[in-house]
Amino acid sequence: MIRLPNCAGVGVTVFQDQPGPLWHAYRLWRAAAGPFADYVLVAPFLAGWQPVSRFPVHRDAAGVTRGIGARADRDAVAVLLEATPRLALSIGARLQRYGWAVVPFFGRWPAERAVLPVERLTGWLAGAAAAFVATGPSGDVPIELRGSTERPSRRCRSLFPAREGGRGVSSRLDPPVQVCFLLDSDRRRTVTPLTLRTRFDNRYDYAEHMLPPAEYLWRWGVTRTVWVGRAATPPPDLDTYAHSLIAHGLTVELAPLAALIAPERGAQYADRLPPEHHPSTV
Questions:
Q1: Packing angle between helix 119-130 and helix 23-33, nearest 10 degrees?
Q2: Pairing of strands 143-144, 178-184
Q3: What is the pLDDT of residues 162-177, one digit of tens each?
Q4: What does the mean pLDDT of the chain come to?
Q5: Is residue 13 part of a domain?
Q6: CA 110, CA 212: separation in Å to the nearest integer?
Q7: At residue 5, does pLDDT exceed 60?
Q8: Contact 121, 85 (CB under 8 A)
């Protein structure tokens, strides 16, 4: 293991010569992401410590999961869920059991004494992966992954076989591909100067190239996206990405998280954007 000090003198784990304790969980998450496996952010899985594995229980997870399911119905859809890691992973684990592809999109660098804590995140990632029942969208018999120590590539076949064809060809998939990207709502947390002097700053932004382009979503039959977050608008660092989806003909539907937790309080704020509108104008 190599450790480098940052400007505050905090040791930062850079990489390990051997696969770390979270490598198996990383492989399980890639299997859960299906055709979007390459978009799983690897950063937290590089942690050098042994995580305390725990399932990410959250009181709002069931309600938000039902709300997402209602909005998705039986359509091919990509949901971008921006929430705290525990809530996002609790929802993601539930969706995965219903056959969704789930992509953890947490870019927190696993440093000790960091601005964004990573210790609990790694435990939740390991706990959710250990509880997976991997089911593909084609109605496959569930494959238990709980407690498995085997390599996923040997344990189970591909849950999402590749489809050939270009834009529009795969829109007739039955059942359709449904994918949820779990975004970190705390990635730009505001902290004091004192915190920055004593802790490693592992805050980050997303970039357009980090998410699948519209052409790739089209290939898998996805013609609309649902953005779920604290506000009924895409986050500033992904506004360009939302604009690119709209420019390529995908529908962008916006829903505040509160509207799914308590529909009677927030459903009136949900909005739906046709391709000719820009999300920042809503």
A1: 60
A2: unpaired
A3: 333 333 333 344 557 8
A4: 77
A5: no
A6: 24
A7: no
A8: yes
Angle value at C-alpha 132, between 147 and 222, nearest 5 degrees: 155
Q: Which amino acid is at 115?
A: V
CA quadruple 279, 186, 89, 94: dihedral sign: negative
CA nearest neighbour of 77 among 228, 162, 180, 158? 180
Classify the phi-psi angles of 207: left when phi > 0, otherwise alpha if psi is within -120 to 50, otherwise beta: beta
- Residues 111 and 202: their CA atoms lie apart, in Å, by 8
Spacing of C-alpha 85 from chain mean position: 9
Helix (H) or strand (E) holding 253: strand 251-256
Residue 239 Cα distances to 23, 227, 235, angstroms: 32, 11, 6
Number of domains in the chain: 1
Total length of the chain: 282
- Pair of tokens at residue 26: 């990383």
Q: Would you tell me the crossing angle of helices 85-97 and 119-130 to the nearest 10 degrees?
A: 10
pLDDT tens per residue, range 179-194: 999 999 999 999 999 9
Q: Would you state the structure tokens that stand for residue 194, as one six-digit string?
A: 């004192």
Contact indicator for 43, 110 with CB cutoff of 8 Å:
yes
CB-based contact 228:80 (threshold 8 Å): yes
- Our CA angle for 21, 180, 169, nearest 5°, is 120
267: domain range? 18-155+169-281
Q: Please check whether residue 4 lies inside any domain of the structure.
A: no
